Structure prediction request, 318 residues.
Amino acid sequence: MGREAVDLFVRSYQTLLRSTGEVRVAGLLEPYLAMAPSLHARARDQLPDAAAITYFGLRLPACMPSVRLILLGASLDTMASRGISDIARWVPQTAPARRRRHYFDGHDRLAVLVSSPSDLDDIIPALVAYELEWNKLHELLNRDHALYRLVQHADSVGPEPGDGQRLADALGFSPSELDRLSIVWQGRTWQLLSSAAEQRKKLAVRMLGGSWNDYERAVERWMEYVAENVPPDITRRPVYFVSSNMHSLPNLLSGSALARSAEIIDYVQDSDSDLLRAEYEGITSDRVRSSMENFLYYAAKKYLTDPRNQAAAAAFAA
Prediction:
């Protein structure tokens, strides 16, 4: 059933994206919920899911509160040829956990360059989750009028003592979860919540190209650039393609996470993250078919970015 639900979700967005017009993200909500994504464990809850907001917040650019339409294409040239003639003048955007290129028009459109179907498998669930959690915040803030006024006041003149705790209690977040979200939201917590209170999010997606030919041309341009900028004897050397995550090679070569697995597991078991503990318990009980090594490298990032573990982070770096 789980695999079938995932396949249905993938087929749903692949079918919708064949349209030449805008596709509402809300149309994918039901198949998204039906597949019960493990990274969005509280998707059906009325209260927002701090872990999910953190996860997709790191994978989408900071301009998202202003975005209504996401344009997907293999290259700027492809998008320009399909009617977005001024896209080269849009403002480049970044997402902390992704090296994918984004461009914001300064109003309500975000262009995202995709190089393969797997990019869509990453982007589309993040957009569905983003809209879902934003609208949870909208509904909560509009049900709780006192909280609504608190957020508006904190955004306009600054928070009062105790406002953070009042907010954490209302959202069902622990203080550490709220602190992490403040980092993800780049210190704009009150501004973002004020925006969420004012309006529901109604995202739409439009595909501007996405055929295999588009992907192949994008890869060819990338490879041409590589060939022009590497030593001339590159063709006589082995070439390895690895994950684009910058930590992949240090993880592989250092073995640091495996050497300190006991410390990391202790951290996971004491963590206030339900998602992190559930993933660990699922792997150890064989309910989740995943690699313990991969999980340790993922959990090590959480462990090392916790302010309480600065000494351990220094030891890892050494």
